[in-house]
Queue: 2 jobs
Job 1
Amino acid sequence: MGKNDQRFVRPVKVAALATYVPPRVMTNADLEKLVDTNDEWIRQRTGVAERHVADPGVGTSALVVPAAQQAVAQAGLTPDDIDLIVVGTTTPDTVFPSTACLIQHQIGASNAWGFDLGAACSGFTYALTTAAELVSTGSHRHALAIGADVMTSILDYEDRATCVLFGDGAGAVVVSPANDDEPAIIDFAHEIDGSGGPALCLPAGGSLRPASHETVDQRLHFIRQDGQAVFKFAVRKTTEICKRILEKNEIGVDQLDLFVSHQANKRIIMSAAERLGLDEKKVVVNIERYGNTTGATIPLALNDSIADGRLNKGDLVLLASVGAGFTVGSVLLRWAF
Ligand code: UT7
């Protein structure tokens, strides 16, 4: 598409945002009691100091419901006004029914349809784009785009290389039509590269390797990751996708007010920001408080930025994500509230 091609049929905006994290906090000191690790290594290599952890029996939908309800109210709507629910999650409550169905029922969104979308750490950028496109056509008026995960449900607390990285959380935005003079979502750029599949995956529990005594004994229901391969890909692709969307829209890096990347590792975010030539002051890093919450990192980072007074109406914001698959995402928008 050329720069003058319209990405959206009519303007759409993020009308509201809310997040939720479970109350229990697990610190690096807590992890020192479980695996051979230490606070210094975790902070230096990842940037994480603590993460919120759902109690056993708490699924992803339970984290989403309070966030979705708050976002709908904040937009000045009621659940009946929501036409569509798109949930980016890697840890649905169950393989089926979808988390979108559970949420629709629990919040009483009686007019909505919806579905889950599997894009790992790009879950939120992909859900936001899908919701934005469907609202922009005019076929839907208000949509909920959600990124949420209970990553601790698939963590191997015997594997120090992965269990220290992740946490649990949820974020929901309402996507609505924008007036011509309102700040709106500008563009998106996404890619997938399936050659990266083995580098980060959950080996069993799907149709290829259903749960069996063997899969449990072999610990195949936990995350497997080649950390260095993912790290290198994430730095390179975060940089590339951001350059691509900025160049396409003829926007210089200096014009950005805020860079909100998926929070997988502080070093990934800062390396990509440096390669892009971004002023550090514009880069949001909040991984120290939450760890990598997969679908929820970007909404949590946006929410913290609002609370800190760093994100304001009209700001030009670039979102970026790289996740398992590999999935690569970016969304460029003007913040609307
Ligand atoms: O959002 C999903 C995408 N995921 C990511 O983006 C993650 C990308 N990868 C990373 O963030 C990093 O690769 C990690 C944080 C996972 C690992 O950091 P690293 O600097 O790549 O460490 P490494 O794997 O090269 O390991 C270095 C050393 C090893 O010890 P030896 O072999 O040098 O003796 C590891 O065994 O660090 C050791 N190590 C640990 N030590 C203490 C690995 N995990 C730990 C730990 N505590 N938790």
Job 2
Amino acid sequence: MKILVLNSGSSSIKFKLLQMPLEKIICSGMVERIGYEDAILRFKKDDINVQETVPIKTHREGLSILANYLTHPQKGAIKNPQDIHAVGHRVVHGGDSFAETTLINGDVKNEINYYSALAPLHNPPNLEGIEIAEKLFPTAKQVAVFDTAFYQTMPIKARKYAIPNTFYTEDNIKVYGFHGTSHKYVSEKAIKYLGKETSKIISIHLGNGCSMTAIVNGTSVDHSLGFAPSNGLIMGSRSGDIDHSVIFYLAESLGYSLNEIKQLLNKKSGMLGLTGSSDLRDIQAKAEEGDKNCQLAIDMNAYRIKKYIGGYAAAMNGLDALIFTAGIGENSSLIRRLACLDMDYLGIQLDLVKNEKQTNELREINTDSSQVKILVIPTNEELEIAKQVLELLS
Ligand code: ADP
């Protein structure tokens, strides 16, 4: 069965075409930096390796270009769109409506749209991806895999906010959690690698969106994103943790409208607000040239990660492994180094040489004497999604 997995994210679209259950990647591709003049398009199939820098304004444009590559007579991987049996979509917010992978119909799309209010950067591009895929691959089954599903097991003390109880019981205001597919995938890899019966793991997903999950024996027990994907770590354009009094001050004293505050905190804050760029590669390059704002933003970013590591180690009463994953976690030795710096008291010791090595495999980057394993594990949300789609359709 050929399953096309689409991850239509905030600033990128990634796809993989997989032959399942063989877990064989037929081809893959991505569009990064959507919205920029120098968006990057990649397509890979066997020894065909395309990389182009092209202006791509919208997700629709990006996905159409990728679909043209898929069916391209020479470079493509399929003869016609009917060759694809199912499209598995990563959907960020499923609220309490979707605890499981689900076949998409009109009602499901309405629900995904409903949760756009809670995930304004994600559910809209996810839904757009679904609607474009329905047109491009009309005979394929369309399936949604929800990021929120991994957190249904979290204890209520970590899911509930300290506001009056009725907001939890009647209005469903609680921690939903995000990046669940990624945290599940990398933590399962780590558990296998550790080879222990029991395990306490902190999974650190650092992409444009960033989150951390505390995982005991494969089950999530705490998580840094919350009701919407805005809490916790400093992200590409999102502030992460912020005192809610700032919001009232912005509205009451500085005259910002609610919509302006939403835009400010979701789209103009985080690394973008601190440095003018949300792309860590640019920020690191400027920091190296001596840009003080970029240097400080990187320090702040790593410091926030460090605080969550401490919190989760305390919550779990121990720590066997840290996992770094996603664009920044897998590629930025600088962020990993700063986040693990001076953490010996928790048994975390980074090997600076191993930290600089770059591979696409799971790798251990702690010193031999470190009590905690520090692992870089490439996330593979696409494979995880394909597995879940196959399971549903079988
Ligand atoms: P998302 O899927 O949330 O859109 P990704 O997981 O693709 O995001 O991660 C994007 C982030 O990874 C960007 O901030 C980008 O700068 C960063 N990144 C990618 N490659 C590198 C690299 N070699 N060094 C530092 N940061 C990198």
